[in-house]
Write a structure and sequence with these properties.
The complex is a heterodimer of chains A (about 300) and B (about 240). Chain A has about 300 residues and is of the alpha+beta class. Chain A contains six helices and 14 strands. The longest helix of chain A has about 30 residues. The chains are: A alpha+beta (about 300), B alpha+beta (about 240). Chains A and B meet through strand 3 and strand 6 of A and strand 3, strand 4 and strand 5 of B. Chain B: This is Exosome complex component RRP41-like isoform A.
Chain lengths: ~300, ~240
């Protein structure tokens, strides 16, 4: 008797799975009618999020972020550069977003994934327009005349973001990991050697550092984002890859921790967004920003305890 | 430079025949058919397997067996200095080929005709022995994907510095310019699938170094079996078997 029940369960399970594959939109809409999603989340709820700082030992700053299954690993390497003539007292921030073929069955070797340059550009624009980092902080200036030759030198922050698992909301996860890595970043102390080259100062050297001792960047109002899907009258926060592929209208909103709107991105899609829907998305983003800020603060304070 | 102290300790405090700490985790990439993270000391790699699936380029389809493809790449931040060109350089191409040929030797490709198996390996942190770590990660990922194999493939390196055979070289030891033997074996069948050596080495010493590498491979094989067994138990528990 128990055996027949088990086989019945299996057949119904198979039917559900087949229905999901054959009619994905109808499958999702049946759930949406009950104000729930197939993974059990309410419509406005984001997936479980975790932040781990210092994931890469060989980097100056790093963070591993998971939103559900979406996984991003960001690492920062500091390099010394000659600043541009327009801003001689500023460093620079370069962001590269990578989608290696391990992250998704859609990404194949050879040609880079379509999303890579788009997300890279969005991240650069978001971080620069949020004015989270004062680039003057990256300038290297010696107080003595002996350092004059090196007055026009600064750090450049080379930030590489690797998507290890692409399961939706890539920009959100990439932005959190970029911000988390910047919060973990320690600017190394450097000095000029006899050849006039800049070298990292190790504890034993008698060299006098050009900049202050190892220090952290001062981060002002930090930007966080939330991607929502608009489908009929429903707003789904933090979509999975499956949801993104079925319901094509996305809205990504970036707010900073002071509540200012940094950017709003709605790349087309069949659903036309009403002002009220956009405002609802902004409201959801506001809640999400508070949540993410608390996660990051908690992780940073835990790191300080470890140090 | 002295790589082995008079007390018989290496630069990182290990004994000559001691391996670095290894750690493995299965199922790191949700979208992949099989995936694994493998760590050997400070070397960390992640492998993902997609397949068997339809052959992307029909011209490459083989009617008698599966097509195995492999891509090895290093993250820009994986080494001391940031890498400018982490993919497509000659070293990456060579390691991709080595991994592919090593894995092809153990996959029962004849059971999967007209299909394609993609193995992607990404180095997140490099501290010597990346190709060994990649082969071990790929083995775990293939097992996780349920790809039929003759046996597990495990790999380990060994070298010869300061007249001492050393097991599982780190980056500093690897860069010393001494002989470096990378070995891949099928532990149950007791067969060698990969053997690479750089620099000159007398034949009598090669036997000792190779034997040391075999011991390392067998130790890794035991650990990998434990990890797979634990993973299977967890799957059984989740499915209520």
């Amino acid at each position: 008797m128990g055996l027949s029940n088990a086989s019945e369960d299996l057949s119904s399970e198979m039917e559900v799975d087949a229905f999901r594959r054959l009619f994905p939109l109808r499958y999702f809409e049946r759930h949406l009618a009950e104000s729930i999603r197939p993974d059990g989340r309410p419509l406005g709820k984001a997936r479980e999020t975790s932040i781990f700082l210092g994931a890469v030992a060989s980097a100056n700053g790093s963070a591993l972020v998971k939103i559900g299954s979406t996984t991003m690993l960001t690492a920062i390497k500091m390099e010394v550069m000659t600043p541009s003539l327009e801003s001689p007292d500023e460093g620079c921030l370069a962001i590269d977003f990578h989608m290696p073929p391990i992250c998704s069955p859609i990404v194949r070797p050879g040609r880079p994934a379509e999303a890579s340059p788009v997300v890279s550009k969005q991240l650069s624009d978001t971080i620069s327009s949020s004015r989270m980092i004062d680039l003057k902080e990256l300038s290297l200036v010696g107080g003595k005349a002996a350092w004059m030759a090196y007055l026009n030198a600064a750090f450049s922050i080379m930030q590489d973001i690797y998507c290890l698992d692409a399961d939706g909301a890539l920009f959100d996860a990439a932005l959190i990991s970029a911000v988390a890595a910047l919060s973990h970043l320690q600017i190394p102390a450097v000095a000029m050697n006899d050849d006039g080259k800049i070298v990292l100062v190790s504890g034993e050297d008698g060299q006098k550092p050009v900049n202050k001792e190892k220090r952290k960047l001062t981060l002002r109002s930090i930007p966080f984002s939330l991607t929502c899907i608009l489908h009929k009258n429903y707003i789904l926060a933090d979509p999975t890859a499956e949801e993104e592929s079925i319901m094509e209208t996305h809205v990504t909103i970036v707010l900073d921790t002071s509540g200012q709107l940094i950017s709003l991105y709605k790349p087309g899609g069949p659903a036309l967004a009403y002002t009220s829907a956009i405002q609802d998305c902004v409201g959801l983003t506001g809640q999400r920003v508070k949540e993410l800020k608390s996660y990051l603060d908690k992780e940073n304070s835990a790191m300080e305890v470890v140090v | 430079m002295e790589y082995v102290s008079p007390e018989g300790l290496r630069l990182d405090g290990r004994r000559p025949m001691e391996m670095r700490q290894i750690r493995a985790e299965i199922g790191a990439v949700s979208k992949a058919d099989g995936s694994a993270i493998f760590e050997m000391g400070n070397t960390k790699v992640i492998a993902a397997v997609y397949g068997p699936r339809e052959v992307q380029n029909r011209n490459q389809q083989i009617s008698s067996h599966a097509l195995v493809r492999c891509e090895y790449s290093m993250a820009n931040f994986s080494t001391g200095d940031r890498m400018r060109k982490p993919k497509g350089d000659r070293r990456s191409t060579e390691i991709s080929l080595v991994i592919r040929q090593t894995m092809e030797a153990c996959i029962l490709t004849h059971l999967l005709p007209r299909s394609q198996i993609d193995i992607y390996v990404q180095v997140l942190q490099a501290d010597g022995g990346t190709r060994s770590a990649c082969i071990n990660a790929a083995t775990l990922a293939l097992a996780d994907a349920g790809i039929p194999m003759r046996d597990l493939v495990t790999s380990c390196s060994a070298g010869y510095l300061n007249s001492t055979p050393l097991l599982d070289l780190n980056y500093v030891e690897d860069s010393a310019g001494g002989p470096d033997v990378t070995l891949g074996i099928l532990p149950k069948l007791d067969k060698v699938t990969l053997l690479q050596m750089d620099s000159k080495l007398p034949i009598d010493i090669l036997e000792n170094v190779m034997q040391l590498a075999i011991e390392g491979c067998k130790a890794i094989a035991n650990y990998i079996r434990e990890v797979l067994l634990e993973n299977t138990k967890q799957l059984e528990y989740r499915r209520g078997v």
